[in-house]
Each structure stands twice: as structure tokens, then as C-alpha cells.
Write a structure and sequence with these properties.
It is globular, with a radius of gyration of 17 Å. It is built from 11 helices and 5 strands. The chain has a 5-stranded parallel beta sheet with strand order 3-2-1-4-5. Helix 9 packs parallel to helix 11. Helix 8 links the parallel strand 4 and strand 5. The chain is 56% helix and 10% strand.
């Protein structure tokens, strides 16, 4: 009898802050390339997020890997769908695309993970998409997941990346990074 392991692809719906963290904040592009090329991930972004990422001066370094491994979700003007809930300025940002694309993927019952770092977007997601809140995390949590669940990074490499983020301009409380590092160290200890 043959046994087959079926690996379900995870659709990663990431905001621009995830990409910019590697491209500009820590300027360490290799981990980003490793993540977006991971065999069990399919990255999906919207047009606004694509535009926000293209602004990075370092984007040209990864543009070919990006085009090969990141799908642009072509759909309607996402902001119009959720306009009653956000200001005009908010619907011009990529976070609203992550929220709408996540909702669509939930409706389609696909396996996905939404990466959101902005507090207002996370709050909206928590308050209005409670049934899928377990599918949302921030960049820091996703790096941790890449280490302990998917083995994309060794725990030590994930810790090194988190330390780089901690000393960068990426906006996050040091306590969150410290707690994540402690969890990764705890995983190392068994």
C-alpha cells in the first residue's frame, strides 16, 4: 500500500510592511527571497501593496524573484467594498487589500495566512472577521512560524533576523520581539 502525503499550499496574503521590513528596514534580502520561494507558500498581494513595495530602492534587487513567486490578486477596487468602514486615506493603503483578499479566501475556504502589522488594520480584522482571526499574524509572528513550523530558517537564524528588526526602524515594541525570541529559544531547549 502506498502512502501519499498531501501538502496543502498556504496562501500568504502579506501587507507591504512585511516586504519593506526586509527590503528597507533591515536591508537583509536573502531571508525574504527564501520565504517567498518556499515550496509550500503562494504569496498573494493586491495592486496597492505592489505599488508600495515597488517604491523601495532595494526592490530592483529582488524584482525577478518577486515576479516569479508573488501573485497579484486581480479583482475589483477593494477599497470600495469596505469604504463604509474606513476613511479615504485608509482605503488607499495596502492593509485594506489584505483584509478583503483574506475575506475572499475565507469565503473560498482556502488555506491562508494574513500578515498585518498596522494596529488599526489588526483591530478591524479582529473585530469584524472573528471567525478567521486565527489566520492573521504580524511579521514577527510569521518569522517565528517560518522557523518552528516550516523549518525555513533555523531557530538561530530566525533569532538573528528578529534582532536585526529590533534595532531597525520597523515599528514594533521591543517586548514583542523579546518574547518571540524567548519562545524560539525555548523551542531550542526542547
Amino acid at each position: 500500500m502506498k502512502w501519499w502525503i498531501i501538502v496543502q499550499i498556504v496562501n500568504i496574503i502579506a501587507d507591504s510592511s512585511f516586504f519593506i521590513c526586509f527590503l528597507d528596514d533591515i536591508q537583509d534580502i536573502e531571508p525574504l527571497i527564501t520565504i517567498i520561494k518556499y515550496k509550500d507558500f503562494r504569496f498573494i498581494i493586491g495592486r496597492i501593496i505592489e505599488r508600495e513595495i515597488n517604491i523601495s530602492t532595494n526592490f530592483k534587487i529582488i524584482s525577478s524573484e518577486f515576479k516569479e513567486n508573488v501573485e497579484i490578486f486581480r479583482y475589483y477596487n477593494y477599497g470600495e467594498i469596505i469604504r463604509p468602514f474606513f476613511s479615504y486615506e485608509e482605503i488607499q493603503k495596502g492593509e485594506q487589500e489584505v483584509i478583503v483578499i483574506s475575506y475572499i479566501h475565507s469565503f473560498l475556504e482556502s488555506n491562508f495566512c494574513a500578515i498585518l502589522d498596522e494596529i488599526w488594520a489588526r483591530k478591524y480584522f479582529n473585530d469584524n472577521l472573528g471567525q478567521i482571526v486565527d489566520k492573521m499574524m504580524g511579521t514577527i509572528g510569521f518569522i517565528e512560524l517560518c522557523s518552528y513550523k516550516y523549518n525555513i530558517f533555523s531557530r538561530q537564524l530566525a533569532i538573528n533576523i528578529l534582532e536585526e528588526i529590533k534595532s531597525s526602524k520597523f515599528r514594533i515594541k521591543n517586548e514583542i520581539i523579546d518574547l518571540t525570541i524567548k519562545r524560539l529559544q525555548g523551542i531550542d531547549n526542547g
